[in-house]
Specification:
- It is a single chain.
- By secondary structure, the chain is an alpha/beta fold.
- Helix content is about 40%, strand content about 20%.
- It is built from 14 helices and 15 strands.
- Strands 1, 2, 3, 4, 5, 6, 7, 8 and 9 form a 9-stranded mixed beta sheet that branches.
- Strand 1 and strand 2 (about 20) form a beta hairpin.
- Helix 8 (about 230-240) crosses helix 12 and helix 11 (about 305-315) packs across helix 13 (about 355-370).
């Protein structure tokens, strides 16, 4: 029996005359997991046009059974105010057509669709990829009472829909499960990160300083997300400079570069030590960039289970990261810091710089943990989950 799946996410897909594209985790491989070969998947998301000259940084969606049905508008006011009626009618049509729903939460579109689904009672399955509360709290610097009230309502409805889902995948092993419990019949903790782990020879020579003059530290994080802790990283570089260590920080990220980061680096006198490297296509290009680093850092203010961190671990890099979200499930407590603690970050970096042997031990441990997230292992778990989900839907029809 062929099924129609409605996939909902706030993700901004891209389009041009050649087709549809995605930046990040959502690729053909991910879409294949949700449906059988004869099924269709209707994608309800945001959409934007893309210029040809940046196509190298995006993955093209080539599957014939993936049909894009984007909402009108890209911002909250346009989607839910200006084009509310059009979006309402289009989503109703999609709900009538679909047999089951896949929702990536947290997502404003996802919550809206689940509200409408109350009247259709279609089975829905959730992929929980982050903490709704933290994502909104750290997204905005200036928070008034109205905004905080909106966050509380958003989190409350996320919890309600998660609790009553037919099935749920958490990207963490424990963290998100504790805050967002579910009564779902099928309930799994499976990372959404796709990594093909290469076999790497890790010895003491591997951890010799790769850069003759100074240690090279890296961080990956979108400039559009203030919760990635880029400001904390810049302050740590300043503190290291005050201690007599000149370390170069390289930041790889998509989105518009915030003037505040450049201003902060200039104000602290470390602008010459900070390099904003733009964005790279996923896979080989990112791994080659990671391989030039001595140390990787992830001083995020909130996270689910960060892909960039696992990518760095898979290259055997020693890492300092904040103890938020699912990060403590990946990194030894020795190398965890509190969010926004630039002094602790600087001290941990200093400890790693001081010893080739310490970097070797930390990097080896990270690599062994990353091997547990190899694509072949996780792909089997994901396929098993979605096959069970489809069987549950077919039994109902």
């Amino acid at each position: 029996m062929s099924l129609n799946c409605l996939y909902v996410h706030d993700h901004v897909f891209k389009k041009n005359e050649f087709g549809y594209f995605s930046e990040g985790k959502i690729t053909d491989k991910i879409f294949k997991d949700y449906v059988g070969e004869s099924d269709n998947i209707y994608v309800c998301s945001r959409m934007a046009n893309i210029d040809d000259h940046v196509l190298a940084n995006f993955s093209r969606i080539t599957l014939d059974n993936v049909v894009f049905k984007p909402v009108h508008g890209n911002t909250f006011p346009k989607i839910f105010l200006k084009y509310f009626f059009n979006n309402f009618l289009n989503i109703i049509k999609l709900l009538k057509k679909c047999d089951y729903i896949v929702i990536r939460l947290p997502s404003f579109l996802g919550v809206f669709v689940l509200f409408l689904n109350i009247f259709f009672r279609k089975k829905y399955f959730v992929e929980l990829v982050g903490d709704a509360e933290d994502a909104l709290i750290f997204r905005k610097n200036k928070k008034n009472y109205l905004y905080l009230l909106m966050v509380k309502f958003f989190v409350y409805f996320n919890k309600i829909f998660i609790r009553n889902a037919s099935g749920i995948i958490y990207v963490t092993k424990f963290n998100l499960q504790n805050k967002y419990p579910s009564k779902a019949k099928i309930n799994k903790g499976i990372s959404d990160v796709i990594l093909n782990i290469e076999k790497i020879k890790l010895d003491l020579d591997f951890y010799k300083k790769k850069n003759i003059d100074n240690f090279k530290i890296g961080l990956i994080g979108s400039f559009n997300n203030e919760y990635k802790g880029i400001d904390c990283a810049i302050r740590a570089i300043h503190e290291l400079k005050m201690l007599g260590f000149n370390t170069y920080l390289h930041i790889l990220g998509t989105g518009c570069l915030h003037d505040s980061y450049v201003s902060l680096a200039t104000q602290l006198g470390v602008r010459d030590l900070i390099s904003f490297d733009g964005s790279l296509a996923g896979g080989t290009a990112v791994f080659e960039w990671l391989d030039t680093l001595d140390i990787y850092i992830q001083p995020s203010k909130t996270e689910g289970l960060p892909r960039a961190l696992l990518e760095a671990m898979s290259r055997g890099l020693p890492i300092v990261a904040s103890n938020v979200g699912g990060i403590p499930e990946l990194i030894s407590s020795t190398w965890l810091i509190a969010p926004n603690d630039s002094t602790a970050l600087a001290k941990k970096i200093q400890t790693l710089m001081s010893s080739n042997d310490v970097r070797f031990q930390a990097g080896n441990e990270n690599y062994r943990t990353a091997c547990e997230y190899d694509f072949n292992l996780l792909s089997f778990q994901r396929k098993e989950f979605w096959n069970n989900a489809r069987s549950m839907v077919q039994d109902q029809l």
